[in-house]
Structures are given as structure tokens and as C-alpha cells.
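Q: How would the C-alpha cells look for this protein?
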Amino acid sequence: MSELAADLRDVLGDARVKTGPTELSLYRKDSSNMAGSASVVCLPETTAEVQACVRIAGRHGVPFVPRGSGTGLSGGAVPLDGAVVIATSKMDEITSVDPVNRLAWVQPGVLNLDLSKRVGHLGLHFAPDPSSQQTCSIGGNVANNSGGPHCLADGVTASHVLGVEVVLPDGTVTVFGGEEPEPDGLDLRGVFVGSEGMLGITTSVCVRLTQNPPAVTTMLMDFATVEDGASTVSGIIAAGIVPAAVEMMDQLCLQAVEAYIHAGLPVDSAAALLVEVVGLPEGLESDVAKIRRIADEHRVGTVRVAADEEERALLWKGRKSAFGAIARIQPNYYLHDTVVPRSKLPEVLSKVYEIADRHELQVLNVFHAGDGNLHPLLVFDARVPGTTERVHQAGHEIVRASVEAGGVLSGEHGIGLEKRDYMSMMFSETDLEAQDALRRAFDPDSQANPGKVLPSPATCGDIHSVPEGAWI
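A: Here is the predicted structure in C-alpha cell form.
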């Protein structure tokens, strides 16, 4: 590995090639519960430097793993088998902004929220808003086709990416898509967005910018049962109303968040819905009135309407602080991500609680209720012998219950390493072979993020295994 590091230092210099044990330890995991091992960490600043890193890794026969901010929750940025980590966090320039055509070119290390702040004075924003938007990068959003609370009406990342400049696994630089909304030929941009680093590394992104709405109304509604809250969600959508966001928090989540932000959340209720509608003021009044009537039909307790932007921001801070607030309950958590039909929300949520109870675990539910994207949080203390095993068994059962209800493995976190071996729950052997054939068309030598997404054996080719002790 010393020759590999030396070649990389010739391109990047000493300061941007990391080989020390402490530095490598920091990059052995992302924000999931898994860890691997890296041989070298590179911090390029330009497309040419990314290209050089990829070619050097290939010349030495060592695979590479793209990494953004490391906020991923599925192990997608976990390096296996001593891979080279190519981190794009220093590529953080907003290259150009076109307010007339509402698009911008950005490097992959630009943070999600920073982009919206940068164009806010133009009356524009970047619509995908993961809960980690203060720290997650645009490149990571592209890799995982990330979502967020406000993607119910606007769509996930794929709907807001026009083009991507990419370094392919053989070191070739190319552009998929572009500024034209419907370029000729195959939609390789669509193939690349959500490919989880298996088809190459993003080095520049042409993003679509969205106009800020003229008016916003945010509502917080509480319910005596989770079932009533979930049924209200289905009722809102069935009435032809598609809010900008519909989020749900259950009682344990409400209590944890309220102890952290002191927003006056309804901690004695079984569940609360955070609903936001946007548009012209007159239209909002009509939508709010309809939503109130639907909530009344499902035995809503109180309905709180944010009086101003300050109160609205506080309510959203509560929703987006949920994952951090659970540290007040237990020191560890395992966050899942599945999607179920909205009509099955009450049924699947009941199963989630039953599974957690049976395994003697606490579970918080906070999720994108509008599109059925569940995020059960299993909270636990990993220091207690046998607890981690129970957590992963419960997680497996939650995933299976979601798929059996007609759902899918992931809504926005990706498959990565976490759900790789669950893919057969959804896909046949023929399906998996077709996916692997697409991957090999881009990466015949399995250089780019090997061992992710596709289970072993997807084909007769060599697929790397999860390292011993990877779950932490």
C-alpha cells in the first residue's frame, strides 16, 4: 500500500492523502451501524484529481469508495477490503447560478442547505431536504436519490438533477444529461442518480432550482391513537390534496423532542401530524379548512397553526431534530427506512410496535407519512450483552413486514451494505442478474464500491463479503 499512497501523494500532496490509523478509523464507517477498513483516504479538489485517484487505484488493483459527508445510513460509504476512500468534501464550490432558467452547477461537496441559502435571495431553493440537510452533500444526495419531508409534492433528488459530470470506474470523464430538460438518447442521468457509487463518482451536478412558494401554512395536529393519525393521512390524499409535507411523530418521539427544543409539542398524545401546505393565500385557506374537516372525522385532538415564520421554523426544528433528541432515551439507535402503501400504515405500524415489544426494545416512529416512508428508530444500549443481536433481528422483521404489506426496502436511504442481503425479498434471481449486468456495463472490473446493493452471488463473479465485526 505504500506505493499506492506514494502515487496518490504525487497528485494530491501529503496533506490530502491520509494513511494514519486515526484518520483511517474516522473513514471506516458512515452514519450507519456498520464499519469496514480503508487503506488510503484521498481528498481531491478537482475533477482531474478525482480522475487521477480513480486511475491510480485501478492501476494498483484496489477498489475505491466514493464518500460525501458520511451522513449515509445504509453503509454505502463503508470501505470494504481495504478500499481507497475518495472523499469529495473539499469540492464545495457553487460554480454557477442561472436564476432565469432556475438551475445551478455545483460541485458534489456542496452542502444541501448551503445551496438553498446561497440562492434564497433570488426567491429560489433546492427542493430535496433530508433531515441531515445541514451536513449532507449534494453528491451524496445524488448517490442515494435522497428524499426529505418536502419531497411529497416536489419529488426526490432525481426530479431535481438535470445533469451530472462523472468519473467512470475506468477513469473516463463524461456528462450524463445536461441543461436541456429532455436530452436525446438514453437517460443515463436517470441510471446514475441513485446508483450508490457503483457506477462512478460525481464531480459536478446541474441541479434544478425551485421557486419559493408565495405563502406557507404549517399545521400540527395531535391524535389519541396512531391509527387515527395514519388514517388522517390517507384521508387528506384521497381528498385530492397533496401537501408540501406530511410528517408523523409518535408519543415517545414527541416526548424526546420536546425535552430538547421546548416547542410545546403534545407529549400526552399518541401521535402528531405536521402538515404543510403551500401556494396562493386564497388556495391555502381552502386546503387548511378541508384538512381540518378530515382530521375532525378521524378524532383529532387539537389543531395548531403556526402563527409566523418563527413558530413554523421551531416546529420543523422539532421534526428534524428527532434523530438527535433520542440520545436522551438511550445511547444507541438503529434507524430503518422502508416504504409501505399509505392504506397499510396503521397495519404496519401496529406490527412495528409488536416486533419491538417482542424483542424487548423501545421504538420511536417519525416518518414521511404522506408517501408511506417509515423510519422506525430502535433505541438501545449496545453495552448490554445480546441487545445488538435483538436489534438486528427486530430490524429484519420490520423490513419483511413492510415488503409483505406491498412495500419496498428503502425510500431514501439506499440499499448499501445494510439491505444488500434483503434484495431477494423484492427481486427474483433474473431481476438481480439484470441489475448486475447494468452495473458491469459501467464497471466490468468491480472497482467502484464493490460489495454494495447486490447480494452475493448476484452472478458467478466475485462479490465481497461483509467483514467480520462490521456491525457495531
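The chain is about 35% helix and 20% strand.

The CA atoms of residues 123 and 212 lie 5 Å apart.

Upvote if useful.
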